[in-house]
Amino acid sequence: MKSTIRKITLNIGLATGVLLGMSGCQKMFDLAPEEALSTKQMYRDIYDADAAIIGLYGKFSTLAKQYVILNELRGDLLDVTTNADLSLREINAHAVSETNEYANPRAYYEVILNCNDILKNFKIMLDQNKIKRAEYYQRSADVLALRSWIYLQLGIHYGSVPYVTESVETVDDVKSLATKARVPLVDIIKQLIQELEAIPATYLDPYTLDNTLVSANVDGYSPTTFFIEKHLLLGDLYLWDQQYTKAASMYKYIMTTSDRLGFEATDINVWYHLYKITRGQISSGMGPIAVGYNSDINDINNLLDNNTTGWRSIFARDRSNTNYNSTSNTSSISRDPEWLWLLPFDSKFLPENPFVELFSNVGGKYLLQPSKAAIDYWNGQTQTNNFAYDARGVMSYKNINGNPVVFKYLYNFMNPNSSGSIYSLVGKSLQEKNGRWFLNRAANVHLKFAEAANRDGRRKLAYALVNAGVASTYNNTAISDKTNLMNTFDSPPYDFDARNGDAPTRYRSSWHLATGIRGRAMVKSNTVEGDSTLAIENSIIQEGALELAFEGHRWGDLVRVAIRRNDPSFLANKVYDKLRKSNNPNAEAVRARLMNKDNWFLPFRIQ
After folding, report:
1. Is the pLDDT score of 269 beyond 80?
2. How far is residue 308 from each of residues 36, 103, 267, 315, 592, measured CA to CA in Å?
């Protein structure tokens, strides 16, 4: 590419690295955040438009620390350590002052105002024929979706917020937003749905490989996971709005990506396993991304607990390995089999990885730790080999130097040994704080689909996806003829064909290797007791804790279900149990406070 990109929206190292890879420009950018909205000379051609997108995601990555703190520490899975400051303790105790640094929405609005400015300038570029119509719609849809995601987050945490779509001159104008009328969460969701539904369906799809935004390998990173998944976002909005069939349809669209791309069910390489939750090989020469054992399944010391194979590798594997981002069709989407949205932190770029500081007791401040409640959740499960624990727990956190450490975010920073009692650095020094911001993956899509399906009267299907999969749940092992088995025989989006048999004809249907969330984790299926809708919903939310712990989904899940049930105790009791198990003397008072829905939301003050 010969075009020289002159300016990006923010001083973000990730954006700089991407731009260098795309344009060949050797000049480092050094813009102060206040310059981000001065864009008069930015938008000359498609490469400048791409620079704006990448710069936007660079700025967006600065939200990672606040996002994880608000979504996990407010719930039941994270707890403070003795090193935590007052702001973190306030978040944990749901007694947040207006000056709390993590409750300040300013950073979110700075990204929103960047989105608004980019959308305005993209329209000018289109009007001046500087970009093609398709290029405009593709990139504008991306920016609009990112802004919508941020507004959903703001609504979840603050209850009502100013909804601003116009551009402003400087980020100092963010403070003036506090004087604008605030829109309640329920109305924000409806507005966001309306805006996303107006996007032509073609532009809801991810960027294809021939797009200038994703065609380059960037310092060992594939940009394919940098960008928000718009079908998933729209599915989430429908789920919050209790439009369950529409939500399930959006999730199913993602889950059937390999089917839409024409890959056969017998093609069990990486493409078959794309977003399907399986135990099998994900590509030639690479191991499974499921909980498993090296040889003897009854020897606990044989657990696959390394960065290359097994469930842990979802968070730790080398993302520069092309086996995880390959395709035989250059017009198709190049995708990781699990991750839909993930952003890297690299010691060579800004912003710095915030998770080492938050979680590590080696080279970090060790401010947050897994809660006793979270550990009990994992220890309360039973594997199919009858080991009395959930192996996802020992790979989500490790005991380092005698302390429980959230480790999902640290595998690219340090490597624990199999006992978890010592460590070795991945890089050459403590300053190489490489890592990733985990935003969304296939397991969350399946859990959200199950949540929608359960509320839409498809309880058995919801149960199947959470537990052992459609093939197992809809089967009768005593019958060899699978013609009328291992299949939901339902209308879209609830039609799942998982037939796998050889009589009277050979079946290898699309979902025949999909094992369900718990099946992939090698834990025994749940039993359903009492009201099946509520029992299955409880199990789905519980499975979210076991599978997605610390990834930023927990608080939203608790709030959404509590609102749906009109039952504050659903949320309040989980937070209470966390605090009680950590011997927090304020546990009862916090529970009483959370029994009032108004107290779920943070004070809105832009500092």
Report:
1. no
2. 39, 37, 22, 10, 46
